[in-house]
Amino acid sequence: MKISVIGTGYVGLVTGTCLAETGNEVLCIDINEEKVKQMQEGIVPIYEPHLDVLFERNIKAQRLKFSTSLEEGIEHGDIIFLALPTPEDEDGSADLSYVLGAAKDIGKLIREYKVIVDKSTVPVGTADKVTEVMAKETNVDFDVVSNPEFLREGFAVDDFLKPERIVIGSSSERATALMQKLYKPFVRSGNPIIVMDEKSAELTKYAANSFLATKITFMNEIANFCEKVGADVDMVRRGMGTDSRIGKRFLFPGIGYGGSCFPKDVKALHKSGKDSDYTFDILNSVISVNNTQKTILIPKIESYYNNDINGKTFAVWGLAFKPETDDIREAPSIYMMEKLLAGGAKLNVFDPEAMPNIKRKFGDTLNYANNMYDATKDVDALIICTEWSIFRTPDFNKLKKNMNRPVIFDGRNLYDIQEMKGEGFYYNSIGRVTVK
Ligand code: NAD
């Protein structure tokens, strides 16, 4: 099939590449000229594990091409995916200007029947709005489908190639049949393609993300309470997670959720509720708890230094909002570092992939280390913000030699409490006893 993807970011590029992998002819469109030039030269502009191999293979096979021309994109694809940003607007709602702007342009350029697929995360009713905007510009027949994306950054290729489910929101039989044909190779193991109306599909994505944000936030509150009463959240988590109604996943407490999806999606669903005279009390609490959780280590650090961190030097390990990505959008590390800098601390930072993005944001206010150990030279404490695998089994002796004092504040509970007792560190983590 001939496919166009408008917007070639984390979702669009993975979608385009994986659809090319199953034999489709894919044209990816982006307004960012530099990005398109890079991709035309065979460079993957983001870090996403395993993407490079598929990217290269499909470019070589001439199934994956790139352009800045929307006109070319509209002419090429029988199915046109919109994988455009839907960032948070000032009032918490999803900013639909990219999606509706593209809809208007597509309406002007469309010459024959096309299926427009909304892969961006959008509020209930957006498919209707896209239809309305396009219909004002053209008399040509088209269908708008809602097809929310559930991939996780860091596992995006695997998630796209082997999805647990595919949701298609459409009231058109013709469009649904085309979508089912396109996705058939991805569900050979028997996972479902769930067809529903557009509004339910749009809400499914927000409900899923808000539920996951709620689950992790609930666990963060349990962890905070554990600290007050001397319980161990690791034990509580294991005790709870073995109940199959609860499940083991997404119960790891830490310094809050971040990223380009959960924060904005929870707020957008909350705002959608408000717009329909419905108050999502639970989401109100999730937003507020997570705001506090992002900097939950700060009072602990301040208290350790008698409320004076001025002139102290800290190592920060992990800057991306989660491991296996270079994405720093809404990363808890950013909120932590801003507070530490405001208190007069100096920061030596290290992340395996996110350093260039952090450098663009923080400039020379931070010291950028070449590796995780260099970051710890002559520091007063190590602060861990992201659970990259390489931080899980460090050489503690090397750390002790490097650091002024053996002090670790761990926002991701990377180390075993019993083991840390023998290592000679002051070790403060989330929801567990402090090792002194
Ligand atoms: P992104 O910011 O990484 O990429 C968006 C791309 O669109 C950028 O390359 C940008 O240059 C391009 N763009 C902007 N305006 C354009 C235009 N008019 N024409 C062509 N290209 C244009 O965004 P993303 O993370 O891929 O997210 C896209 C959508 O998918 C959002 O709605 C997001 O909520 C949703 N989503 C994201 C994820 C994720 O993990 N990142 C997962 C599921 C769903």
From TrEMBL:
Residues 315-417 form the UDP-glucose/GDP-mannose dehydrogenase C-terminal domain. Its EC number is 1.1.1.22. Keywords: NAD, Oxidoreductase. SMART domains: UDPG_MGDP_dh_C. It holds the Pfam family UDPG_MGDP_dh_N. Belongs to the UDP-glucose/GDP-mannose dehydrogenase family. It is an enzyme of class 1 (oxidoreductase). The keyword Oxidoreductase applies. Pathway: Nucleotide-sugar biosynthesis; UDP-alpha-D-glucuronate biosynthesis; UDP-alpha-D-glucuronate from UDP-alpha-D-glucose: step 1/1. This is UDP-glucose 6-dehydrogenase. It catalyses: UDP-alpha-D-glucose + 2 NAD(+) + H2O = UDP-alpha-D-glucuronate + 2 NADH + 3 H(+).
